[in-house]
Design goal:
Layout: H1 5-14, E1 20-21, E2 26-31, E3 43-51, E4 56-66, H2 74-88, E5 92-95, E6 101-109, H3 117-142, H4 149-169
Antiparallel strand pairs: 1-2, 2-3, 3-4, 4-6, 5-6
């Protein structure tokens, strides 16, 4: 019992998510708290694709980072990316050795099963949360730092605690100033 894109569109509509449908994929954008794309925007672009007549599901975040093929930082960057995979169990990373593109991907076979709304939303939310959690470490590795996953997790924990304190105190979270060119809305 394969899945078709109409089911995915229905899930997204039910959640009020904005998206665009293309010939063989759905595109959406999620605002992020920590992750910054290569243009510096707080947004994660996501491609949702069904393959093999709806029997294979893919969620792709293309062009998340770039590591030139001849970079001396490759060992550190790949160690950090593999460490994220180890710690999260949901995401994996792909690397194009020709142009240096690093993308995040969640994929799995559906075969004769189905994809539930809960599974779909866990994948979408998980991808965004994981990138927010580990962006600091990945950026550090890309720029010659240690890429400490522990430090990235501590930083994210501090952000979560701060958010909880704001909620408990009934205070609105301070908004970062919006600069021209910033993405402030989804898709």
């Amino acid at each position: 019992m394969a899945v078709d894109s109409k089911i995915l569109e229905q899930f997204m509509n039910e959640e009020g998510l904005k998206f665009t449908v293309h010939d063989d994929y759905i595109h959406t954008t999620f605002a992020t708290d920590v992750y910054r794309n290569q243009e510096g925007n707080a947004a994660l672009y996501i491609i949702i694709r069904l393959e093999e007549d709806g029997e294979y599901f893919k969620l792709i975040a293309p062009n998340m980072y770039n590591l030139p093929p001849d970079s001396a930082r490759g060992q550190t960057v790949f160690r950090v990316l593999l460490g994220v995979c180890w710690r999260t169990k949901l995401i994996k990373f792909e690397y194009d050795e020709l142009d240096g593109e690093i993308r995040g991907i969640i994929e799995f076979p559906i075969e004769d099963g189905t994809l539930t709304k809960k599974q779909f939303l866990r994948c979408l939310n998980g991808l965004v949360q994981i990138m927010d959690e580990y962006h600091v470490a990945i950026q550090s590795a890309l720029h010659g730092g240690s890429g400490s996953l522990d430090e990235a997790e501590q930083f994210s924990d501090i952000l979560r605690r701060t958010e909880r304190l704001y909620k408990l105190a009934g205070v609105m979270k301070p908004q970062r100033p919006v600069k021209p060119g910033d993405l402030i809305l989804e898709e």
